[in-house]
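> call design_seq(struct)
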C-alpha cells in the first residue's frame, strides 16, 4: 500500500498550469468507513483489469493470461501493478490505465540472476515495491529467497536466502522456509517478511542483505503483512490461526486484532469476527486493513483501532464463488490472494487466483459514501472543456513580468497559494527569484530577486534581494509571510506586507552542512528542496 506523506507541489516545466480548486465547489467531509461500505452498492465497483483464463500471454485486458497469480504490488505513482505469476515463474507488469500486460522478468522455473527473460524464479508468490526507488522485492518462494527486481530494466539479483531452513545472517547465510508476504518501510531501507513455514516475521536490512528475526512466536503460517505509515506497527495475516495480528515493532509485542475461529462472521466485536483463510492484507487510509479471505472469496475491512470488521466485496462464506463484476455485494471471486491499495486510496487491486485475473475495486464511489460529491466534481473534469488551462507562462523560458500571456518563468519548481487564495507564489529557480501571480488575472510580477535574474553568491547576506536557485516555497496560513528553500543552503522568509527578505534558518554566508541547533543561524542544510 501506498500513502501520501505530506503535501507539496513542483513544476519542472516552463508553463505554470492552474487547477482552480474553488471552481470545484468541494466541501470537506466523508470517512474511510462510509467510503468502503459504499462499495457494496456501487454498480461498477468491481471490474476486471486483466486476465481471463489460465495461460501465459502478454496482451491487453481479458486477452492476457496468467497461471496461478498470487502476489501484487503497485508503483509509487499508481500507474502500474506488478503480479507475482506463480506457475509461470514470472513477474508481470500491468498498465493500470489500459490493462496491458507485459512480462518484466522471468521465464521457466529455475534460479538465475539476470535481466528480463534470462532471469529465473521458482514459484514467486509476492512482490513489494520500494517507495524510494524504482525497485521491488520478490518473495521467490520456491527458491526460499528474496530477490530484487529493477522495475525499469527487469534486472534481477538475489539478496538473501539459499535453501529451506531457518537462520539469521547475511546473504546466502540467511535462510527462509517458503517466504511469502513482504512489505517495505517508508524510507526504503527495511523489509519485513512473513516466513510462512518458519512461522516467523523476519527483518531484512536491504542495503546490507542482513536478516534478523523480529518475532517467531504466536503465528501459524503467516502469509500477509502490512505496515503503518509511521513504520511502527505491522499487521499480519495469520493464515492457519485464522486471525489478523498486530505487532509493535519496537517491543516485538504480538496481539490479536481480529478473528477467533473458522467461519465467516462480521462484527463490531473483534473476538466475534471469523475468517477461514485470511491470506493477505493492505492498509487503507491508516484506518482499515483490507483483508482477502481465500476460502470465503471476499474482501473484508478491519478497523486497526478495535478490530471491527465488515465485508466490502464478494459473496462471503465461500458458497458463492464465481467470476462476476458489478457491485461489491454481487461481485464474485474464486480463491482470492494478494491485495494492494493505490497510493491515492481510490482503488484496490486484488488477485483472483482461480479466475486467473487481476480485479479492480473502486473504493470511493458508493451511494453510501459521503465522498461521492467530491468524486462527482472530480470526475466532471474528464468532460469539462476548460477544466485545466494555462494560468501563467508562455511555454518558453524567460524572465518577463506582465499579463499571463506575456509573463515567463525559467524552470519554476515550487508553488504556494496565499492565505486569502488571491495570489500564487512561484519559486522561479533559474531566474533566482520569487514571482507572484494574481489569481484573478494571471498577471506575473517579481516579488524578490535581482533584476537581471542572476544568482547571489554564497557570501551574500540579506542586504541584496536575491537567491541562489530557490526551489521549495510555502505560504504561512495566517501571518502573511512565505518561506523559500534554496540551493544556497538556507531557508528564506519574505514578509509580504513589507517585502522584507531575511534568512529564517541556515548560515548567512551560505555554508552547507548538516546540523540542528536552537539558534537559527547555526542550523545547516545541504541544498534543501
Amino acid at each position: 500500500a501506498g500513502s501520501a506523506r505530506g503535501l507539496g507541489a513542483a513544476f519542472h516545466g516552463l508553463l505554470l498550469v492552474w487547477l482552480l480548486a474553488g471552481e470545484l465547489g468541494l466541501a470537506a467531509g466523508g470517512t474511510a468507513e462510509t467510503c468502503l461500505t459504499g462499495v457494496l452498492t456501487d454498480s461498477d465497483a468491481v471490474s476486471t483489469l486483466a486476465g481471463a483464463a489460465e495461460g501465459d500471454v502478454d496482451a491487453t485486458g481479458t486477452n492476457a493470461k496468467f497461471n496461478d497469480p498470487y502476489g501484487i504490488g503497485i508503483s509509487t505513482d499508481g500507474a502500474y501493478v506488478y503480479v507475482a505469476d506463480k506457475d509461470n515463474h514470472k513477474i508481470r507488469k500491468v498498465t493500470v490505465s489500459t490493462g496491458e500486460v507485459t512480462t518484466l522478468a522471468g521465464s521457466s522455473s529455475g534460479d538465475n540472476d539476470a535481466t528480463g527473460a534470462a532471469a529465473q524464479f521458482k514459484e514467486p508468490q509476492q512482490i513489494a515495491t520500494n517507495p524510494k526507488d524504482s525497485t521491488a522485492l520478490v518473495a521467490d518462494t520456491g527458491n526460499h529467497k528474496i530477490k530484487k527486481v529493477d522495475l525499469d530494466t527487469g534486472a534481477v539479483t538475489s539478496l538473501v536466502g539459499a535453501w529451506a531452513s531457518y537462520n539469521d545472517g547475511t546473504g546466502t547465510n540467511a535462510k527462509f522456509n517458503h517466504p511469502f508476504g513482504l512489505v517495505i518501510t517508508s524510507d526504503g531501507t527495511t523489509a519485513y517478511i512473513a516466513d510462512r513455514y518458519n512461522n516467523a516475521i523476519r527483518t531484512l536490512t536491504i542495503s546490507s542483505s542482513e536478516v534478523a528475526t523480529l518475532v517467531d512466536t504466536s503465528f501459524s503460517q503467516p502469509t500477509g503483512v502490512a505496515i503503518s505509515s509511521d513504520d511502527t506497527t505491522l499487521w499480519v495475516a495469520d493464515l492457519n490461526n485464522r486471525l489478523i495480528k498486530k505487532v509493535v515493532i519496537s517491543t516485538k509485542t504480538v496481539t490479536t486484532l481480529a478473528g477467533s475461529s473458522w467461519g465467516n462472521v462480521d462484527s463490531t466485536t473483534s473476538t466475534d469476527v471469523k475468517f477461514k483463510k485470511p491470506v493477505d492484507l493492505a492498509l487503507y487510509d491508516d484506518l482499515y486493513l483490507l483483508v482477502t479471505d481465500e476460502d470465503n472469496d471476499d474482501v473484508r475491512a478491519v478497523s486497526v483501532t478495535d478490530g471491527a470488521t465488515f465485508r466490502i466485496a464478494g459473496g462471503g462464506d465461500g458458497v458463492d464463488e464465481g467470476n462476476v463484476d458489478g457491485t461489491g455485494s454481487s461481485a464474485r471471486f474464486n480463491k482470492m490472494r494478494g491485495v494492494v491499495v493505490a497510493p491515492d486510496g481510490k482503488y484496490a487491486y486484488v488477485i483472483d487466483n482461480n479466475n486467473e485475473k487481476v480485479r479492480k475495486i473502486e473504493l470511493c464511489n458508493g451511494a453510501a459514501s459521503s465522498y461521492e460529491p467530491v468524486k462527482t466534481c472530480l470526475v466532471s473534469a474528464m468532460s469539462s472543456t476548460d477544466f485545466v488551462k494555462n494560468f501563467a507562462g508562455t511555454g518558453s523560458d524567460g524572465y518577463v513580468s506582465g499579463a499571463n500571456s506575456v509573463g515567463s518563468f525559467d524552470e519554476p519548481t515550487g508553488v504556494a497559494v496565499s492565505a486569502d487564495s488571491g495570489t500564487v507564489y512561484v519559486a522561479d529557480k533559474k531566474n533566482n527569484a520569487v514571482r507572484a501571480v494574481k489569481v484573478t488575472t494571471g498577471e506575473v510580477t517579481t516579488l524578490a530577486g535581482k533584476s537581471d535574474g542572476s544568482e547571489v553568491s554564497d557570501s551574500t547576506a540579506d542586504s541584496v534581494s536575491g537567491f541562489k536557485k530557490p526551489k521549495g516555497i510555502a505560504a504561512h496560513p495566517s501571518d502573511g509571510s512565505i518561506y523559500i528553500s534554496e540551493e544556497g543552503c538556507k531557508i528564506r522568509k519574505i514578509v509580504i506586507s513589507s517585502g522584507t527578505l531575511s534568512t529564517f534558518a541556515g548560515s548567512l554566508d551560505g555554508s552547507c552542512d548538516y546540523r540542528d541547533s536552537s539558534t537559527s543561524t547555526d542550523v545547516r542544510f545541504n541544498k534543501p528542496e
